[in-house]
Write a structure and sequence with these properties.
By secondary structure, the protein is of the alpha/beta class. About 25% of the residues lie in helices and about 20% in strands. It has seven helices and eleven strands. Keywords: Signal.
């Protein structure tokens, strides 16, 4: 894996919100909110038949009753929570899409209770939409095994600690006092167990439904910036290719790969700026090198086709020790500021 860096060139009914910090500064004095809400989008009707009935309990001590799982269901929808500002400084909202086994909560507040990217970008004058993809957070599960063909996967703390590059392989211990993080880690290690509380099961068979949900969200919101993390990255690339007139920029934080350039008509996305950001210690697991290289191929092909793509290895810009959870790292506010500056320069 070769690492390279290419840095291209008052409203009626508004609610005042205290905001002691922004993506760029800590003295903005707050912002005014026009609307807070949520909705579900996407999904499809599913009808089950021929599934055996069974006895079940609603509550302990009650008489069991017969459950018939056959009938009509709604499956595949994603949940969206939004905050719209009274006077946004940008006409483009930011749609934040989480990674596998996570929810929109990863952008709300850091596990050590600092401002998350939701508030950072609101303070920078941008409306923010947080999503919970199918099977995560407030989006529903599909019935297993009839609607969802694969069982949910549950990650251990050890897997999260090592895969998300908080510490090297073999450095996790059940006793927090015995854990050995990277010496330069930016992740708030003392809050690791707090972070793990927000982790949810991961499903590997929902790609089609999740993509349809995200595409429906882009269609509903209209022109916007899509900011993705990890497994959300491929959905962001696909949504951009499908609707380049609506996705005005794609910011991909350590994406889990990108489309094969041979399958992409780059004339569709040549005018959509991309920003791809990577953290540190990517040599800890071979899978990171594979994802890094596949995304690099897309980046290089887009630039060769006359498109705009900016590649940032954070350690080449003075940010050492960033984990996979960059939006939670101790320098997350500085990375948010870097992203906001890039958006101001490259997105109209």
């Amino acid at each position: 894996m070769k690492r390279r860096s290419l840095l291209a060139g008052a409203v009626p009914g508004a609610l005042a919100v205290s905001a002691p910090g922004t993506a760029l500064a800590d003295d903005d004095g707050g912002f005014r909110v026009r609307e807070v809400g949520g909705f579900h989008v996407g999904g499809e009707a599913v009808t089950l038949s021929g599934v055996p009935t069974r006895d079940a309990y609603v509550a302990e001590g009650q008489t069991p009753f017969r459950v018939d799982p056959n009938g009509d269901f709604q499956s595949g929808q994603i949940y969206v929570n939004y905050v719209r500002l009274a006077r946004p400084r940008s006409p483009l909202p930011v749609l934040m899409w989480h990674g596998g086994g996570l929810t929109g909560a990863c952008f709300e507040t850091t596990p050590d209770r600092r401002q998350g990217w939701q508030q950072r970008f609101l303070s920078a004058g941008r409306d923010v939409y947080l999503t919970d993809a199918l099977g995560a957070g407030r989006a529903s599960w599909g019935r297993y095994p009839e609607a969802s063909k694969a069982e949910p996967l549950f990650r251990t703390k050890k897997e999260l600690w090592e895969l998300f590059r908080i510490g090297p392989p073999g450095s996790y211990a059940t006793d927090p006092r015995k854990r050995r993080p990277y010496a330069d880690t930016q992740f708030p290690v003392a809050a690791f167990d707090e972070f793990v509380k927000q982790v949810v099961p991961r499903f590997r068979t929902y790609d089609r439904s999740t993509q349809a949900g995200y595409d429906a969200l882009v269609a509903r919101v209209g022109p916007s910036t899509v900011l993705t993390h990890s497994a959300g990255g491929p959905f962001g690339f696909a949504a951009t290719i499908a609707a380049p007139g609506r996705v005005r920029a794609h910011v991909a934080i350590e994406p889990s790969g990108a489309p094969d350039p041979a399958t992409v008509d780059f004339s569709r996305v040549r005018r959509v700026p991309h920003l791809i950001v990577w953290g540190d210690h990517l040599d800890a697991d071979p899978s990171w090198g594979q994802l890094y290289d596949s995304t690099r191929r897309f980046h290089d092909a887009l630039r060769a086709a006359g498109g705009h793509s900016t590649w940032i290895d954070l350690r080449d810009h003075g940010h050492r020790g960033n984990s996979h959870m960059i939006m939670m790292d101790r320098d997350s506010h500085r990375v948010a500021g870097m992203i906001d500056s890039w958006l101001k320069e490259h997105v109209r």
